[in-house]
Amino acid sequence: MTPRRPQPSRAPEGRRPQRARDPEARRAALAKAAMEVVAENGVGRTTHRAVAARAGLPLGATTYYFPTLDDLIAAGLHHALDALQADLRIWEERLRQSPDWPEALTDLAQEYLKDRRQVHIEYELCVAAARDTALRPLATAWMDGVPDMLAPTIGLDTARDVCAVLDGFILRALATDTELDTTRLTAAIRRLSPDHHPVPGS
Amino acid sequence: MTPRRPQPSRAPEGRRPQRARDPEARRAALAKAAMEVVAENGVGRTTHRAVAARAGLPLGATTYYFPTLDDLIAAGLHHALDALQADLRIWEERLRQSPDWPEALTDLAQEYLKDRRQVHIEYELCVAAARDTALRPLATAWMDGVPDMLAPTIGLDTARDVCAVLDGFILRALATDTELDTTRLTAAIRRLSPDHHPVPGS
DNA sequence: ATCACTCTTGTACGGATGTACAAGTACGAT
DNA sequence: ATCGTACTTGTACATCCGTACAAGAGTGAT
Fold it and tell me: Start and end of every HTH tetR-type domain (chains A, B) (predicted)?
């Protein structure tokens, strides 16, 4: 209906009233939206249009702020990495204050797994980085996050070992959609930690 | 050039001579091709046309044998899982014959990592399964592969622990495109295994 | 007030994609 | 021999994609 548009060359009515300018906020909103879309659809099914819709912005905004789709996705992954590293600083504090760090670490992991979307995107990053060289620095930074946090306490090598079991347990929980096996994880971390001495009579 | 299609309604000349019928071979070829495309492009960028081209078959073959794209991809992942489980039986034998199974397991992992495409697709499966319920049985089966293999020797729980470190180390190597840290991995596996007793005076 | 510039918004376009389908062909049953 | 069926092959089509771009509209300098 509405026999509107008598002159197709000029139809400024349907145009959305222009919003206040805020380039940096837009960049951030797009990065956040990209992160969410990647978490939900995966890197391969992330599109300009999905991100724009998610951010509530017109399609053109995506290409204005990010020259190419890969850049947009990279921004989303970068945003996720920043979020994780902010979390890690909190973790570090919590670990420092805990009398039993292996158990505390397990608790943190379980908490981390509450929001699977966040977890999902990190592993998505790993797999994507395996394919795309440009993402490798991001993946490396992510991979170094937990070990760097643990290194002051237990040394870098052991920290990497602990991070590996942690990743393995989380990957299992993620892929099979099950709960984290906390008791086994804590025990495994203990056995990997340098001050672990099993009872001799076992 | 080439004066185009004088009679567009009838042009049976260019038609490829029909190949011998072999439905099962086609199914298998498509599954294999799907596996390869997924390994190279990822689940999200796998298309009918890429798989068909890879298999050297016409586009229609993909939809004839697999009703939907998701089915085609699932078939590819299933194919990869079968390949892995075949490998696992060989691993099992190699482990049984080795006097030092942690070291042997590390060697096998390193060998496994030689072909990153194969490794890649397995982790792709995990991430995809986290998003898609239909893939979860496949991911679970994959996750159980290594633990089931190790369980007779060290028990299921410890086997899962060892599998977790293994996965963690492999994930790191995959994401950062580095070599597997074999000495650290072997040491970590040893510390997780039940008969490990650290030297008391350390 | 004018201008230059940056940001916003909508739309266009060539191409790729999932799926449907028509036309043709091998092959076993009769 | 013929016939029905299951398989093969090419193409059609609506939709979605990445990217380009034109047309406004704020904003600060002059």
Answer: 24-84
Instruction: Return d(Cα B175, Cα A135) in angstroms, integer.
Output: 9
Q: With an 8 Å Cβ cutoff, are B139 and A176 in contact?
A: yes
User: Is A12 contained in some domain?
Assistant: no
User: Is the overall model pTM greater than 0.90, yes or no?
Assistant: yes
| Of the partner residues B120, B165, B184, the one whose CB lies closest to the CB of residue A157 | B184
B128–A177 C-beta distance less than 8 A: no
Average pLDDT of the segment spanning A141-155 = 96
Residue of B114, B12, A44, B64 whose CA lies nearest to B55: B64
A148, A150, A162, A172, best to mutate vs chain B, most B CBs in 10 Å: A172
Number of domains chain A is built from: 1
Domain span at residue B82 reads 23-192
A177, B136: Cβ pair inside 8 Å?
Answer: yes
Say what the pLDDT of residue A104 is: 98
Tokens of A157: 């090598």
Non-local (6+) Cβ contacts of B26 within 8 A are B55, B57, B61, B65
Q: Say which residue the tokens 């990743």 belong to.
A: A167
- Rounded Cα distance between B108 and B14, Å, is 50
CATH value at residue B166: 1.10.357.10
Residues of chain A contacting residue B200, judged by C-beta atoms under 8 Å apart: 197, 200
Does the residue B17 lie in any domain?
A: no
The distance of B16 to chain A (nearest Cα, Å) reads 33
Cβ of A197 near strand C (under 7 Å)? The reply is no
CA distance, residue B140 to nearest chain A CA (Å): 5
Q: Which residues contact A16 (CB under 8 A, 6 or more apart)?
A: A58
> How confident is the model over B160-169, as a mean pLDDT?
98
Please report the pLDDT score of residue A199 as a whole number.
57
